[in-house]
């Protein structure tokens, strides 16, 4: 059979897992054997696989395993139940006996003549023991893990019991819940125990075996309260009621009314007393539930350690059948993701030549990204970050610039203002020449005043555009050299230095454009004559208003709206006509000036961005990194940063663990197929 690959499993392998899971869910329990389930050769290996995955600590990768978790309040009889299931003695005493999570792996040995095999696993070592000394061995191991005081630890201890007559089960026994610390226990003992319990019972893959004492009211049990927090419907909670012989009164009503939502049902048991052997204890238990007038009312499917063993085996089969395919898929998915992330990391650099090659690659990738977002308008690398959709953002800045230019030079058509600026300039520029000529100096004086009014706007746009481009360039560069933190500061400096130079050039260029517009009045754009001619069509209406005092004193001109012109009658005809003509010429020519300022800005920015991405950025970055003033950035690439080294080590460990996990499942699948053949 082919091993599980590094990618998603092949269809036939996936079907094998689902098929085995279906068979496992159909397993029945043998009611004849006292504690032994009828697991066949296909099923026992799957439980071994889950146990091996737990030993490998695959849960550290966020992959939860199907687990029967044993919880109960202190002195609820939890240890007695586990002793009866395993047929061995566990530590007893005052206070908390279980101070670490105890993973109990029970495995039935089919032949009664075989000697039991017991051993402990913790801290990467295996300690053999036997039935006579297992309790002492657990205590010694617990002291080594949690200290020899009365504190607790989250580090688990595994007890493996291979013995004829025990059920094939794996359970995790957790410390008993206590609210009041005794001498030697930490003051926050309750919080520590609660945290451990919640960590184990919260996953949906966990089955909660809640051990309750018949001597208490179930709703008051702290273990019930905790299990209800994570399993409100009780669908993954099974309750075992101990000490039935101590408090038989009302027990039938407790387990049949189910006031605390135990979805998987109740099993009532009798604890072993004194020096009773386990066989004697089972016989006494059967006699108790058969003959006691109150306990005999409880259905036989709800009483006895054998029934509990069978129920647990069945529940375990169900949870493994439900989770196994998903576990295999999660292992594969997690492994693929970690391998991809590991492959994306830079290989460890060992020479200056390799460092230079890597740095050139960073520059190349950065240039390609910037070409896409700054020049071609492609933003597939940043689909959800609108700030990185650069062509759209730059177009918005340019549109706002155009609107701001027009807004700052809106024609003032309020009462008493129309033509007054032109008349004043004409009065101040008149000379000894023919009176019907408009002095060019007058036109330039008005033009220069308008240009001065908007002269700061282009410079403000330049600052906004290059601040934005600096942010974008820095973001892209930092992204592509994120695995080389040694280069971050020099790369950021290079971006800032380059953009500052480009910004200065652009500012100088725009100031030059403004000065050129103030210098002279020139255009070859035919739109100037077209618009001037159209505006001059209003001259006759203006003249009529000036000459006929019976006419209204308002005039409608496109681009000006309805304007008041009555105040202009106070001036001579020659000055009025010259002022009107100059006003229309200025208006027509100003449209050309505004378009020129916007178009020149757009073309300049496009050229500047192309130069930045095409050549200037690469030169600036190489100079900055190679500069001896900054510690030799290329040489620093030879020193892998602690964060990158730590990440690489973490991913390598994770990949090894997940590959081992894949191999565990593959080996188990091979065994099952061989047994089937």
TrEMBL record:
<feature type="domain" description="Dynamin-type G">
    <location>
        <begin position="62"/>
        <end position="325"/>
    </location>
</feature>
<dbReference type="GO" id="GO:0005525">
    <property type="term" value="F:GTP binding"/>
</dbReference>
<dbReference type="InterPro" id="IPR020850">
    <property type="entry name" value="GED_dom"/>
</dbReference>
<dbReference type="Pfam" id="PF01031">
    <property type="entry name" value="Dynamin_M"/>
</dbReference>
<dbReference type="InterPro" id="IPR003130">
    <property type="entry name" value="GED"/>
</dbReference>
<dbReference type="GO" id="GO:0005737">
    <property type="term" value="C:cytoplasm"/>
</dbReference>
<dbReference type="GO" id="GO:0016020">
    <property type="term" value="C:membrane"/>
</dbReference>
<dbReference type="InterPro" id="IPR022812">
    <property type="entry name" value="Dynamin"/>
</dbReference>
<dbReference type="InterPro" id="IPR030381">
    <property type="entry name" value="G_DYNAMIN_dom"/>
</dbReference>
<dbReference type="GO" id="GO:0003924">
    <property type="term" value="F:GTPase activity"/>
</dbReference>
<dbReference type="InterPro" id="IPR045063">
    <property type="entry name" value="Dynamin_N"/>
</dbReference>
<protein>
    <recommendedName>
        <fullName>Dynamin-related protein 4C-like</fullName>
    </recommendedName>
</protein>
<keyword id="KW-0547">Nucleotide-binding</keyword>
<dbReference type="Pfam" id="PF02212">
    <property type="entry name" value="GED"/>
</dbReference>
<keyword id="KW-0342">GTP-binding</keyword>
<keyword id="KW-0505">Motor protein</keyword>
<dbReference type="InterPro" id="IPR001401">
    <property type="entry name" value="Dynamin_GTPase"/>
</dbReference>
<feature type="domain" description="GED">
    <location>
        <begin position="579"/>
        <end position="673"/>
    </location>
</feature>
<dbReference type="GO" id="GO:0008017">
    <property type="term" value="F:microtubule binding"/>
</dbReference>
<dbReference type="Pfam" id="PF00350">
    <property type="entry name" value="Dynamin_N"/>
</dbReference>
<dbReference type="InterPro" id="IPR000375">
    <property type="entry name" value="Dynamin_stalk"/>
</dbReference>
<dbReference type="GO" id="GO:0005874">
    <property type="term" value="C:microtubule"/>
</dbReference>
<dbReference type="InterPro" id="IPR027417">
    <property type="entry name" value="P-loop_NTPase"/>
</dbReference>
